[in-house]
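Deliverable D5.2: sample structural annotation.
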Amino acid sequence: MCKRKNDIAGFCLMGLHFPISAGIDLRGRRKGAKAAVKMTGAGFGFALFSPKDIADDIAALKKVIKKNKAPLIPVLSYDDKYSYEGMEKSLDSCFALLYDFVDAFIIDGFGARPEVLDSLLNIRLYNDDYRPILLRVKDDLLSSELDELISFALLSDIDGLAISNPRLLEKAKGRANGVLNLLFLGDFQEDAPFYCIKCRKGPFGEFISRFSALRLRRRIRRQQR
């Protein structure tokens, strides 16, 4: 059963259970889906990754689709290139191929093309399982642009916004809270119910991140005593 809490012990959003409130951001890493599986297995509450070679990503995700307890969330962008078995694929094709193997999607939102979002929503409509779709908010968005994006999301049946900038998160809370789901992807803050750690670069990046997950689990145990 999902419980909505403002502590590290976990929360529920869009019908998904996040075991702990700390996630890991693996965007830009090679073999991101494989790394996401490892990091959620190490204890993170959710993982973001950038799909590249979709066949490799699906192979990694298939191994945990029935037993993984933390959401795995690909971040799709109009500017990225995707391939499947050596062939370049469009954003909506990537979305369709990954649909059965992930828990939600984040789409690079500002300047989103309505016809592509319509295609994603239609793909979701014809699937038996529901996958939430969030639009990612650019960190330097103006207030007027944020209002425009919120209005667009509401009209498009989008489930929520993914926000990294604390200032924009506060503004979005005032304008969309209770209507749109808000997923905060920034660094730790005392007043934020959840946050997202950026995976360190370099050969030891994943090791250091897994050590961070271990420290988080210890912190949870101390809070629950």
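Annotation notes: Residues 104 and 130 are 9 Å apart (CA to CA). The first helix runs from residue 32 to 42.
The annotation will be released with the project's public dataset once the embargo ends.
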